[in-house]
Design brief:
Blueprint (H helix, E strand, L loop, with lengths): L19 E2 L26 E4 L4 E9 L5 E7 L3 E9 L4 E10 L15 E9 L2 E8 L4 E7 L14 H4 L8 E5 L7 H6 L4 H4 L8 E5 L9 H17 L3 E5 L28 H12 L3 E2 L1 H16 L4 E2 H4 L1 E5 L1 H17 L12
Parallel strand pairs: 9-10, 9-11, 11-12, 12-13
Antiparallel strand pairs: 1-6, 2-7, 3-6, 3-8, 4-5, 4-7, 14-15
Helix pairs in contact: 4-5
């Protein structure tokens, strides 16, 4: 695969047109105003693209389509879904744009460094990439995610966190910086220098920080759990960021009557600490927006029933009733997207629907 290694990236204003455009409208890679080459199609094979860029936030514009009808999706870095499958009629081209966070480590903060630069993979039923342009994002907004294995960028199939699926539901101008990490509790997230001490200084004024930590607070007493949530909220506000508390996704643990009304499903720990209830209480007391993902996922899983909900989790593959499949993580990411939009925590123009 051919790679570019450049010192300066040319700034380029990209159109975000969402309607079909003729093939001749795309001129291909060329030099920018400063003479530096644009990062374009010459960095791609039929199934993947690599761009030698430093850590940062980048706008990506893709032109999809070909002589035959096509259907293309885009994932990037550690299996992040960046663009949902997009169908294009034969002979037409459709432009789509998104913004992506490039960092080291590229996935979980305590995981391997990954591959330097920006890596994208083309998927879908019949992928066809007619053009691509990558430029530094000058004024992008950011959503930081603080969480555990149900949120993180999972490194391998069949696992997926909902944070890994969230980027595909956002448009250019808003990126997801997923700093969720497997196995973390509120205690470990605050104490590990690779986690909160790394994330907090990166928060800029106005950035959203979604906090979902509960699954691993199995031995955390209520006073400590509450104090830890309050510390995270205060830390976000100290950076002039906007904290959002998120109650944890349910475990798929049914009662005989088909409900999830039990401590295992609803994240009540061995000390009797009702995690969702404490999160709701802290949100109310501190004036923090709340996404009640426990209630949302409970309603969804109960509606699917014991059999239908198996595909949402990894029951069939691993007998796992806690971690979600790509399908389940996508459903849960949609719930988060809907709540962010409904509460006007992000502009509706930056939300991708359908």
């Amino acid at each position: 695969m051919r790679r570019f290694n450049i010192a300066v990236l040319a700034a380029l204003t990209l159109s975000t047109a969402l309607s079909a455009v003729p093939a001749q409208a795309y001129s291909g890679p060329a030099s920018g105003a400063s003479g530096a080459p644009r990062l374009g199609l010459e960095n791609c094979t039929a199934t993947a693209c690599h761009f030698d860029v430093p850590p940062g936030t980048y706008d990506v514009k893709v032109l999809l389509g070909g002589d035959a009808a096509s259907a293309t999706s885009v994932t990037g870095e550690t299996r992040r879904s960046l663009l949902p499958e997009t169908a294009v009629p034969e002979g037409e081209r459709i432009a789509r744009s998104f913004t992506v966070d490039v960092r080291t480590p590229e996935g979980e903060p305590t995981g391997p460094a990954g591959t330097p630069g920006l890596d994208l993979a083309l998927g879908g039923g019949a992928p066809a990439l007619a053009g691509i342009q990558v430029t530094p994002a000058r004024h992008a907004r950011q959503i930081f995610l603080v969480g555990d294995s149900t949120v993180c960028d999972q490194p391998g199939d069949p696992y997926s966190g909902w944070g890994q699926q969230l980027p595909q539901f956002l448009r250019k101008g808003l990126s997801v910086a997923n700093y969720a990490d497997s196995g973390e509790s509120t205690v470990t997230y605050l104490s590990n220098p690779q986690l909160w001490a790394t994330v907090q200084p990166l928060i800029r004024p106005g950035d959203l920080v979604l906090i979902q930590l509960a699954h691993n607070d199995k031995t955390t007493d209520e006073a400590t759990y509450r104090a830890n949530l309050e510390a995270l909220v205060a830390g976000v506000r100290a950076q002039q960021g906007r904290p959002v508390l998120v109650t944890p996704i349910v475990r798929r643990w049914f009662n005989s009557d088909g409900t999830l009304n039990n401590g295992t499903a609803l994240l009540v720990n061995g000390l009797g600490v009702d995690h969702p209830a404490v999160i709701r209480s802290v949100a109310a007391a501190r004036g923090v927006p709340l996404i009640d993902l426990t209630a949302k996922t409970k309603a969804l899983v109960e509606s699917l029933g014991p059999e239908g909900s198996k595909s949402v989790y990894l029951y069939n593959e691993k007998r796992d009733n806690t971690h979600t499949s790509v399908h389940g993580a996508t459903l849960y990411a949609e719930l988060v997207r809907d709540e962010l939009a409904a509460r006007e925590l992000i502009p509706r123009g930056l939300v991708r629907v359908g």
